[in-house]
């Protein structure tokens, strides 16, 4: 199978998967007999108010019409209206919150990859006690609640050492991006926006805020990277080409990093995809811990205000993102390793 | 001929006493879990104070001989709260594992044994749920149906059903071609008895490994739900709740509340992770 056919098959398979996930979300939200609006209000709320909410949100229609409307709206990028007073659409709010989560996801994945690959290689290079300790680190980091790591970091760096900010994304007005040839570019990723506009002070400001959250989340997901790097390195250092490289008298460093690691690193790509679900769960907790106004905190806030349409919208958005990421990772892996396409 | 039936108790017994790779991890894991579960079960008899009683000691007092783990902001004894605190989180995790396994395993057995379009459709549904973050789905379900042990367990269970399904399916696909299954078929055994009497016993060890990972994740997800305020009522003695509300007392310097409760959650999840890692090492020579 060529790369093109592989991509096509994979994309075609993804469509029913997204559809199934979206349907599960819809039916979980609606399986309750009655009306989600009733959950929003106390029992003795004004019936007229409840009726107007029900009508405005389309909940007075039969279930199958609601389902068709829901799917139809999704195709138009409409994630529904918020149940808060003004019925504002949910989608723009989600889009404005998304960059914060994306930025956290990028930096924590980076921390996890660097830490994971570094420790994995170190373990294989030293073996013995160092290797056992690193193996234990892999297990413990996986078993630690991310917000517990966050709290410890906050105490050490924020409270005792006073060197890093412990909440939020930026002090003052966030960087505004840059206008090139009349087009305003603003990614919402503060570190990137500040670099684009050449404001180094702003970059330091935003970077210092993201350090602790990305370390907290990065450490927790690094365990799996340690494992996979270690397992693959152990396999490759027993391969003939590595023995041949040793026999030629190359330095151990060159053998490990230049020969073994280069060939062991590929499956790490798939782990990024597998870790994405844990990353998203972790982001919800990390954003709550560090008061980062991202999607996770939005979800938690909306649950608190019993805004079910916003909760549903956020979950749907995350479902689409997760499926897309796993699709992209699979395609990337197939591109890098032709054996997958066989 | 002596027939060797697999039994989970014998599996656990031999994996602890037997030699072999990963034994240290397995022994450590089982010891931690045994300790924590025993502590939770006999909590009413060993706890020095009532874990919910306010004002047993001074507010926010650091660890001392009379309060070895200190007290929280309401002057409740932290040692008693830690002893009691595993009851709900472990119960939720245990219920979640029980629910997923009893749904995921039979579906996996039937679907892969019958095969064909049924298997393809079920696999597609399972695959679409598989990569979904458990915490997000749990948040959604609990926000609608409210908090209770069974709701938390159900919400966590939904996402883990596919893990059991996939493991069972991949094993059944190869086992159902084996001769002893053919022999059972020829001797007139019906499908259900082939699945549950002949195939299931030989795949239980893989199911136990999935269950340990499932246990660890369920504990972390339950603690996560507590942390975002969707957990059980705040006055219950619970590690997740103490960790969540203890952090507001950090400003006044009482680190012992979050340290003890956080460590307990870590230990519980670690115990199960160690067991699964031990088995992974035993089964896979590559990672030794």
Mean pLDDT of chain B: 82
CATH superfamily heading of chain A: MetI-like
Helix % of chain A is over 70%
Describe the main β-sheet of chain A briefly.
2 strands, antiparallel
Percent of residues in β-strands of chain A:
under 5%
CATH class (first level) name of chain B: Mainly Alpha
Bulk shape of chain A: globular
| Assembly level | heterodimer
* Number of helices, counting only DSSP H or I runs of 4 residues or more of chain B: 12
Q: Beta-strand level of the residues of chain B, as a percent range?
A: under 5%
Describe the overall structure.
- The complex is a heterodimer of chains A (342) and B (288).
- Chain A is mainly alpha-helical and 342 residues long.
- Chain A has one domain: MetI-like (MetI-like fold).
- Chain A has 14 helices and 2 strands.
- Chain A has helices spanning 3-30, 36-40, 47-56, 63-75, 90-126, 128-143, 146-160, 190-196, 200-236, 240-247, 252-264, 268-290, 295-304, 308-336, and strands at 178-180, 183-185.
- A two-stranded antiparallel ribbon of chain A has the order 1-2.
- In chain A, a hairpin with a 2-residue loop joins strand 1 (178-180) and strand 2 (183-185).
- In chain A, helix 8 packs across helix 9.
- The mean pLDDT of chain A is 81.
- By secondary structure, chain B is mainly alpha-helical.
- Chain B has one domain: MetI-like fold (Orthogonal Bundle), CATH 1.10.3720.
- Helix content of chain B is 71%, strand content 0%.
- Chain B is elongated.
- Chains A and B meet through helix 1, helix 6, helix 7, helix 9 and helix 12 of A and helix 6, helix 7, helix 10 and helix 12 of B.
